[in-house]
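Margin note: ligand = zinc ion.
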Amino acid sequence: MTTQLDVRTPTARYPVHIGTGLLARVGDLLGGSGVKPGVRALVVTDDHVASLGYADTVAESLAASGIPSSITRVPPGDATKSLAMTEHLYRELLRAGVQRDGLVVAVGGGVVGDLAGFAAATYQRGVRFVQVPTTLLAHDSSIGGKVGVNLAEAKNLVGAFHHPTAVIYDVATLASLPPREWRGGMAEVLKHGIIGDPDLFAALEAEPCATYPGSLAAERMVAQACQVKIRVVEADEHESALRMTLNLGHTFGHAVEHASGYRLNHGEAVAIGICLESHLAVRMGWLATAERDRVVEAFRRHGLPVTPPKDIPSDAVWAALRLDKKHTHGGLTFALPRGIGRVEVARGVPETLVTAVWQEMEERRT
Ligand SMILES: NC(=O)c1ccc[n+]([C@@H]2O[C@H](COP(=O)([O-])OP(=O)(O)OC[C@H]3O[C@@H](n4cnc5c(N)ncnc54)[C@H](O)[C@@H]3O)[C@@H](O)[C@H]2O)c1
Ligand SMILES: [Zn+2]
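Resulting structure:
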């Protein structure tokens, strides 16, 4: 079975193919997106994903459709999302002979997608790129066109909007994900449930999906979560208001992720962030305590952390919060839950309130 969703924004239109065995059909599927034989491609992947053979399968599929490609491997991990690595990719693109009509194909998780997408957005003022996600979390990062890299000071400080030509999601690749990465991806799936699919959230609450459930169930769940993201991105392409709801858990989440020195993966940090922001929403009178408890319990039952680890220094969290793009002079901006299925943006949240939530959590840290 294959599911096709479509993303339609004022500036872009592209398919999201979700199914099993799609790595071997990348070349074929790109034909439907107007990619012509003869253009050259650079396949970007990381060392783990390369060792599983996924990038080779994609390159073979491209070759069979008349698209010659080279494969370049980057080290796994968020530190790879850097300007230095972007420059490395520019040189690889030059070496591979990729021209303005060429293609960057990102085969991997959100790190590879964000980095390769940013290189594609800026190389020769923009070449096409294709997302071939291989992590559960990348159902989120591969859709919407946000690409970018980190600076030493904070995450995602440099970036662009550059939509992919297509997203080709072979859910069979998720079978090889380490359990911790699966759980991290579930944090963003639960996030999408809280933002816009209360039925998805309720189903996961009733029956947690803490390990890979098989390709059919994975396809269904991934499609539901992608659908929430697509709906929001279509309604607000450039993050003026509605799209900011996708940042649920990310104001605290990014700060905690950065302050942990990336020992927490992105999904774990988002799980902690959503729990902290649910406590904040209760303090602000936005969320009923019973709903907050449902949120925290759902993350706990998926094996995700719900409080920040003890060894994360509070001052590092605060330094990162103040550098956050969502921080303005009037206070902090959060996307906060009002209920399961309803998230709204709160601007100018006073630091005193945020401090109170953090201090309350300090006492419960594990
Ligand atoms: N652009 C966006 O809108 C957006 C949204 C959410 C997250 N992100 C970014 O995504 C990144 C996190 O993405 P991620 O969680 O996919 O991390 P990741 O890309 O680091 O992948 C996680 C780990 O899994 C390995 N891996 C990947 N696929 C595998 C597979 N099929 N089998 C076995 N191992 C596999 C990787 O090598 C890596 O070690 C963060 O940098 C985050 O900021 C971006
Ligand atoms: Zn995220």
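The chain has two domains: 2-176, 183-362.
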